[in-house]
Each structure stands twice: as C-alpha cells, then as structure tokens.
Amino acid sequence: MHVTEGEVELVVPEQPESGVGDAVFFNPVQEFNRDLTVAVLRAHESEADRDRLSYLDANAATGARGVRAANAGYDATLCDHDTDAAALCRENLARNDLDGRVEERNANALMHEERFDVVDLDPFGTPIPFADAAFRSAADLVCVTATDTAPLCGAHRESGVRSYSALPQNTEYHAEMGLRVLLGALVRTAARYDVAATPVLSHVTNHYVRTYLSISRRATDANAAVEKLGYIHHCFACLDRESERGLIAHPPDACPTCGESVATAGPIWLGPTHDAEFVDRVRKQVTGELGTASRAFDLLATLDDELDIPTHYDQHRLCRRWGRSANAMDEFLGSLREAGYRASRAQYGGTTFKTDATVEEIEAATDGA
Ligand SMILES: [Zn+2]
Predict the structure, then answer these.
(1) How crowded is residue 27: how many other Cβ atoms within 10 Å of its Cβ?
(2) Distance between CA atoms of residues 62 and 8, nearest Å
(3) Which of 73, 96, 132, 237 is 20 to 30 A distant from 369 in Cα terms?
(4) Residue 327 CA to ligand 1 centre (angstroms)
C-alpha cells in the first residue's frame, strides 16, 4: 500500500482491521501530528543557525517521521529493533532518494551512546520507557507522542499512576489533565539529569497527546521547571478548581464554594503548555503541501490566543447544568470580557474555553447574554 504525505511517498503494510497483528504499524490518523512535526522541525532549524541538525526517529516502524525529517533537510536516523520495520525504513528512504541512517536495535541503547539535536518518541502506548534516554540524548528538542490517553486522563487510574507517578482525576477537562500529567512526568524525568524541559507546543486529540519540549542543560533552569509542578483541587459537585504549586499538596478540608469534599490530582505540570513565539514561528512554516495545513493553522491560531490557565471549561456542559441554551462562543466570551474577566477559546474542542472567572462568576456574567 502506498501513502503520500507532504512531499514523500511511503510504502506501508496493509493494517489489520483490529489494529493487532504482525504488520509494521502505520497510523494514517496521525498525518496531522506528522505534518505539524515537519513545521516544527523547519521552525527549529531556521532558529538554530547551525549546519544540518540531527534527528532521531526513535520508534521508527515504517519510518514515516524519519523520512519526512530527512526530506525537511535533517540528518535523520531511523531506529527500530524489528527487522521488518528496519527494512521498510530503508525502502522508504531509498524510494524518496533521501539519505538517512537506519539502526536496527534498541532505541534506549542508541540514545545512551549518541547525542541528537532532536529526539522524537512515538511508541505504542506510554513513552515513559524511552524518556530517560531521550533527555540524556537530546541537545535541543524532545518530541513526544503518547497514545495511552485513558491512563493519562484518569479513566484508567491505576495504570496512569504506575506509568506517570501522578494521580490523575477524570474531570470534564480530562484531555488537558492528560497533557499535564504527561508533562509533569517528562519534566521530572528530565530534571533527574539536570535538564530543564520546557513545553513549546502541545496538542491533544481523542487518540493521542503530542508535545514538544525545548531542552536546557542548566541545573537552575531545571529547578525553575520543577517549581511549576503542583496540584489541582477539584470539586466534582460545583466544578470549582484551585491549583497549588509545589511538591507537597495541601488540599482544602472542603470546597471553598460549596462545602463538598474535593479531589486532588498531581503532581502535574501547571506551567504554560506552549510558547507563543515558538507557535508563531511554526505557523510561518505551515505550507500548502502539508495535507492537513488548514487544520494546523486553526490549531496554532487557537493556541496563540489560549490563556495560560491550567484547566478549562466547556460552555455546553455548563449551560446544560444551568438549564440554559448555549450561546455562540464569541458572544459568550465577549460577555465574560465585558464583565472584566480574561477569557479565550481552548484547543480542547469548539465549545471549550479558559477564563480567570469562577463557575459562579461565569454563570452571572453570561446570564441573559
Ligand atoms: Zn464545590
């Protein structure tokens, strides 16, 4: 089966319906993820001001990511321990007349031996088994895809606790909870090597979480990153939520708004999940040959405006709660701003938003809007 993505053509095995089988895995749904990666790599290269940066596709499978990085001008290494996968990687590089190295071996061993400017993790399920080696190996940027969204978001709680050493809560902002659980674990992993990992771009879909972390090897920066970890105290009764920075949680005895008990999630990342300047640079690199360019523009525009607040709301859910019909988003957010609050759309869905207003304040500000 042949697939064209961006400017490259890939040979990929027919994928079994069930998603299980011996075929080397290729996920067509992640074209959007790979398109954005190409834009990120271009943005990073234009800023780095060095000759030919190196890129490691650590979980290469068909080599889709590595081939596209090579096509973007990177010195690409494609690593997979599976013989069939390594053969496909070689075939896909050759088919596109691209140079690139294929390593048929354990990615962790390779990352312990060699430094790469950019390391990209895209394994089955949790990326945590590769995180330590990635932060030791990467000079500039670590890119991470996690497809285990149920453990991350709190739907499979014990599994999430095991993989990420954090307690998630299955709140109505579960997608963002998943992103922040992942970021918290990655930041702590990097800090073990005196490395500060700072998220410069992150996005979440139903099927995966994707994040790009810029690397600094200064212990003081790593300390500053750890200081952005903390907890969210969430009230399932009235939806009140408070965040608290630090590695020791001090949950309130009762919800300050309604008096019910609160549920605490953490330690998670409470800092920004993207950097506005970086997002702007990536936006300039989204070009027409990318199959999902318009979707990428939409996401990056939303991120550009998104407030740096650790949780979000969904207008439809709130309105259902209040027994009210929902409003157009621009009008709804306009009412909040007119009442003096900050408000923005959020990337987690068309009716999601962020604000510094409390639930009661949102209700009052948008009543009759
Ligand atoms: Zn409450």
Answers:
(1) 19
(2) 13
(3) 237
(4) 25
Cα(352) to centroid(ligand 1), Å? 20
Is this structure's pTM higher than 0.90? yes
Query: Which residue is listed with tokens 């390593």?
Result: 103
Q: What are phi and psi of 26, to 5 degrees?
A: -140, 125
Distance between CA atoms of residues 357 and 369, nearest Å: 16
What tokens does 345 get?
A: 């759309």
Q: Which of 274, 269, 106, 109 is nearest to 189 (CA)?
A: 269
Q: Residue 312's closest CA among 223, 266, 243, 245?
A: 243
**Token pair for 131:** 């995180």
CA of residue 32 to ligand 1 center, whole Å? 38
25: DSSP letter: P
Lowest model confidence (mean pLDDT) among 18-32, 102-116, 130-144, 262-276? 18-32
pLDDT digits (tens, 9 = 90+) for 313-364: 999 999 999 999 999 999 999 999 999 999 999 999 999 999 999 999 999 9
